[in-house]
């Protein structure tokens, strides 16, 4: 048993023996199915504290010849799968945590040689009868020698593969050398039975060095068939909440919201912490802090602040993630920044609609901390007015609502290009920020029979408040907005869902710099 070659199962044993352990062992069923196939190269990217290392430790414990893990998998889901015993502790495993070789930036120029030297030392001990290499050899040549002389391939488990790109953000030479190293290690090599890499970022797009595209990538943008292994599923969290007597609805509000295909995934670290300590709060502060988030939301890209403001108000933003270069420095448009925030776990991507949004209350708090220290004072002040504006809406106080929206317009003028309906939408979402307590996330452009309502707020099931159907106008009239809601039947879809429905028309006159508001009830109680 070595540190890198055929390591033991101590790390996975620790996870299994923990007070809270969720069985994700069926991931092994998939990795077994792709052994020695063209799908054998897997790169899984997810945010910090989403269980990347635990999965890597589990695969090491299952495959490594350096231990006996039958007892650790007894009763686990994978034990019932075909082929389980066939591969249990039967493979040569090379396990690397790249971060261990990069304690500081001083290691950037030497870490590749350090990795090779450390692994070569163990290979010499593990295969004393193999010849033709020494501690000064290149690792890929030594592995080829071993394969040619023994016929034995290797399973590679590499954790934190991308920490080089995160630490060497500005060192393109280091990034290129590292990608060359990985390409040489894996591409076209017959000694590779399986390569499983984990990190926060997908594989870097870097000119012809995207040649390590031999990897199938599973990410927060495209989880493919591995979504259930990216975190805790709804069913798993419900079961744990029952066991630990924690309110699932509150856990859902705080920590749900990551869209991975049809699945909703929870951050495992946050769920475990709230189950253990019974305190609902942001548990991200000890890992990825608001200071890291601040760097990105303060970047000077057209539309970025508007997007953040809209999402803080519960809305979503369309993005194209395809231009993202899979690093933390190459940004050309706001979509690149927002895509990075998806990979970091600050946003979630709804692939069906092509939109991003803030997933839950925990991450909303991190955004709020970030904007507070970024000088977005007008935004914070606007949010503080939100509760009274919502109350004025319920009271059908049109003047108070118009004046409140106007005040928020003035407070956010330095952050928004206030010259179109998109900016007016941002202002409205912030104006109704406090609606989160009794409404679901606002629905943007809710489809009806003859068109789309701009914004719709549907009450949560346990809240006795009216639904809000809002139509925004630019240089027209609030009365015209109400007429459009009625004529095009924007509220019809809401009738079977809720009780009273308020129609809210808002207009901004560019010449007079005035806001007008018209509020009407949609007739009788519909419930």
UniProtKB/TrEMBL annotation:
SUPFAM superfamilies: P-loop containing nucleoside triphosphate hydrolases. Pfam families: AAA-ATPase_like (PF09820), PDDEXK_9 (PF08011). Residues 18-205 form the AAA-ATPase-like domain. PANTHER family: AAA-ATPASE-LIKE DOMAIN-CONTAINING PROTEIN, CONSERVED PROTEIN, WITH A WEAK D-GALACTARATE DEHYDRATASE/ALTRONATE HYDROLASE DOMAIN. This is AAA family ATPase. It comes from Schaedlerella arabinosiphila.
